[in-house]
């Protein structure tokens, strides 16, 4: 038994009655069984993966049998702590697992809006202090951090970010291979034959090799430089990022794709509109880079930036 | 209805965990450009010392520096001895037959496939750097769509005059190749292999099951998370087909994702936290690596760190010690005189060794509550391995580790263990304006940048020489050097507190452009330039000194 597990054992008994380390938290309706009675076999570290798989299976089974998600998670974390450190006593495993389950629960409560940022931070600090104190064979106390204007502002920022975050999903991208790194090639005026328009075109090296139906997107970031001296209100540089679907490719070329910003009055996305104006009358050159994204949330690394003015011969499509 | 695992939801959670949160590095081109600049400063010193040709403006500037700093005569002479040794390093470059499509490169090679004109019996990886006929970009060897050869490359500003040439005329690409290897630690995806306790085990599929094949949708990320843990919330989780004139697509522009063995986590070991270290929890290195609980200039995590923490805690994400290389490679215990080192004691490089941790100590806490490895240890690993592989194609690659660490140590957020506080937008902005920061666009600005690098490199060179004299060795104090650069960075950043912009990091997740623009202005350029030149200067001193290490 390691010194750490001895220390844990010595101070854990007081906590065994509660599945949570939160002194103020209400106990779940159904307490988990003692860890020792249902922990998967974990005789050696070399079997950690198998042990974890067994623990997950136990937890999923418990969930299927109508244990709550919270109870199943707690059981899983306790079992997992034994998988990674088989020398832990059942009581110590209970402590480590409970801390990890508590941290997950606190995070989830914040995400679903039932816990404020201040309370989330306080809960985290509480668990960290308790664990540290237990390791040192001392006593920890709950940390209470009163809400402040700063935390309330930060909470608004964080919730707005979470609310605005989007993730991509496309079932056809399951098991898609890693995306290759595209390259920016050239930008300039040109025909857009497929759509019968004229406008600014951006040519990039094309990414292939994805499963049928797995749509590829090209994220293009531009930093416009060399502003038009006739418009002193322009900032020295302007940064714009746009995303195009491969389905918007104006070519049918296996190696190159061209994406267009038509001059016509058609409605564009805000970012494309900003880019078109910048190309059209605001800036003379741009540094730009590109990367690929698919519906499995895979993303290629960014290409290096290249700095270019408009292609002298244009970029016809 | 049975409730079972959901790959779809697991994928979404994995995606969320890889949102553009700068645990990972995205500035490989900056690492390459820094090292290329540093090599060219050595080259300028070499040519100045030997009276060889360069622009008159540059020669005059170096001459003026030498008059006021007589020690520079020896410095330039040392550069003259060092640069040729770097040029004969084996390139280490892997073959990458990705075809080129640029007319200039196709004409140069006589076909789309790169032709290195290798001498009979010589592989590309064993080709001397001085014999490389084209420069590669950081995408080379990492699945580029077209050949990753930089046909537009030229050294920065006045440094062109010490390495003239072009795509069709001979030019020395040692700097670009060393730079390629300086960027390479960002490709070490095996450094941090993670494992989720719970991923796929407890999720409850609802929201994504009804979406047909071949349709890409954008889903509210937090809603999917909430749905997985709290099924009644699923009714509030609409998804939107991607398309509609690009409007929805622009909204998803900032979402990264990858698997748990991911480049997104490579950067975990690329920090060294230079602020004062509290007694508890005890650090495992004198100056610890990233520790999310204490991230930031004052040890108070910002909302970005909150976000990272909650996502990793929800996912139950831990290190997989068996597969992750960083806990083994970057837990640094250096011995002396053939003796193995002792955990926590002073090591053979006179820097305190890491305190060794057991596999279970690495695996028990979730990532936010684990002290990750420090970037000076990453540097030391590369330095030691390069010495062990001296004379092989691996030597150049491994020298990239300390060069990379010096580059990271010159970034304020890396020196305070912060994923937030403006980390990613700061680095993106530096990537965008690197040429401006080093004065590539004008003779005066370029000469100014070069002379500043020379003076600062002279200082770092003295740092190394003093250490050698004190300890009677020809080694390079890699851990001391990296932590000293990081401390310099932290002190300067603290004197310009506006460089730490907590709000910019959280904004970056949904408005990358706005957040980056906050670092693209003259006030920020001043500190970016200062720190960048300092990092380049430390790289000059390292490159110069590492060629002197006795075998």
Identify the notable features of this structure and list them briefly.
heterodimer, A: 317 residues, alpha+beta, Immunoglobulin-like, 2 domains, four-stranded antiparallel beta sheet, three-stranded antiparallel beta sheet, 8 strands, 20% strand, elongated, disordered N terminus, B: 551 residues, mainly alpha, two-stranded antiparallel ribbon, two-stranded antiparallel sheet, 4 strands, globular
Describe this structure in words.
With 317 residues, chain A is α+β, with helices and mostly antiparallel strands. Chain A has 2 domains: 3-164, no CATH class; 172-308, Immunoglobulin-like (Sandwich). Chain A is 37% helix and 20% strand. Chain A has a 4-stranded antiparallel beta sheet. A 3-stranded antiparallel beta sheet of chain A has the order 2-3-6, covered by helices on one side. The termini of chain A are far apart. In chain A, 51% of the residues are buried. The model of chain A is unreliable at 1-44 (pLDDT under 50). Chain B has 551 residues and is mostly helical. Helix content of chain B is 45%, strand content 2%. Chain B contains 19 helices and 4 strands. Chain B has helices at residues 7-17, 28-50, 56-68, 72-87, 103-109, 174-183, 221-229, 247-251, 303-315, 326-329, 359-363, 375-388, 394-409, 423-437, 443-471, 478-495, 502-508, 512-517, 522-546; strands at 194-196, 217-220, 239-241, 317-319. The longest helix of chain B is centred in the last third of the chain and has 29 residues, at 443-471. Chains A and B meet through helix 3, helix 4, helix 5, helix 6 and helix 7 of A and helix 1, strand 2, helix 7, helix 8 and helix 9 of B.
